[in-house]
Amino acid sequence: MSRQTYTFTSESVSEGHPDKVCDRISDAVLDAFIAEEPEARVACETFATTNRVVIGGEVGLSDKDKLHDYMGRIEDITRACIKDIGYEQDKFHHETVEITNLLHEQSAHIAQGVNAGANKDEGAGDQGIMFGFATNETDALMPAPILYAHAILRRLAEVRKNGTEATLGPDAKSQLSLRYENGKPVGISSIVLSTQHLDAAMTSADVRAVVEPYIREVLPEEWIDADTVWHVNPTGKFVIGGPDGDAGLTGRKIIVDTYGGAAPHGGGAFSGKDPTKVDRSAAYAARYLAKNVVAAGMADRCTVQLSYAIGVAEPQSVYVDTLGTGEVCDAEIEKAIRSVMDLTPRGIRTKLELNKPIFQRTAAYGHFGRAPEADGGFSWEKTDLVEALKRAV
Description:
- The protein is an alpha+beta fold.
- The protein has eleven helices and 13 strands.
- It has helices at residues 18-36, 64-71, 74-85, 108-114, 144-161, 204-218, 254-257, 278-295, 330-340, 345-352, 386-392, and strands spanning 6-13, 41-49, 52-60, 88-89, 92-93, 98-105, 128-135, 168-181, 184-197, 229-232, 248-249, 301-308, 317-321.
- The strands form four sheets. Strands 1-8-9-10 form a four-stranded mixed beta sheet. Strands 6-3-2-11 form a four-stranded mixed beta sheet.
- The longest helix is centred in the N-terminal third of the chain and has 19 residues, at 18-36.
């Protein structure tokens, strides 16, 4: 039997964190190509450091002339991302940062295993394992520590960008340690926040005075008490932030992107990858399935694992673990999942409408636990499979 009383910690990082700057740029490039051609192939990696951004990887459009034209847009896309995040530092400024574009056409050897032929279905873009998870401890069916760690940083970004708290900088990290009793979160044992500030004279106490009201605003009031320990900018000043303070790279914050360590993560990162790549699309499908299982009342918690082989359409395995909370046996849920959703790469993309420029918005504050949007963004957060799953068991 799993433990029911414990403390669990998750962290989040802001859109201005060096790795998240890179995720944002990679996903912005992806969105630009998908907006031109829904079946575009993109595997974009970004590296950022002092006064420099380097972008590399493989891209593909059916029209080679358009591919050449789009290569010329990469610099503008990159500068727009950095500007929106808010970087205007001397050594990392959206107007002056040096940008190197090393993107090139996709390997034909990879494409031949993925593209659908006359007598075969489109195969997976790579081998790998992907996980999805859901829990009924929050309304979003997400683990509370990561959900609220994200919420803190999103709120601070809002007040920074609208000018209410202009002394805050783009780079920040949060961390919450939550106390659980009877398997449910009941209180916060510690709150950790480190945020860049533009006024070098500010002390840690000054920064806490700015951010504490917003932190309290987004957290359940009853979770914070006299025993909650606060650490705000515990090392002191934090003026130099972003890629000037620490190099960034696409795909280095995968646990921040998913469940904060409360569930397994598969073999790959998400950002910069088009949805033929099951590292991304199948992870979204696994979350979608797990969330619908929990929403259907079949379990309090659910982990779904999917596995694929490159060039092969059907998943190699579908595995469900309800972690001892299931109202329906796991094997029956596995059968139900296979019956209610086509889990081939094209089936996933069709069901979740992933051939749209909806990925840049996922680059910060988590890929999961967000509300579905009218244009198809976060479609994997819908609970429209509930009735089909109930009928299938």
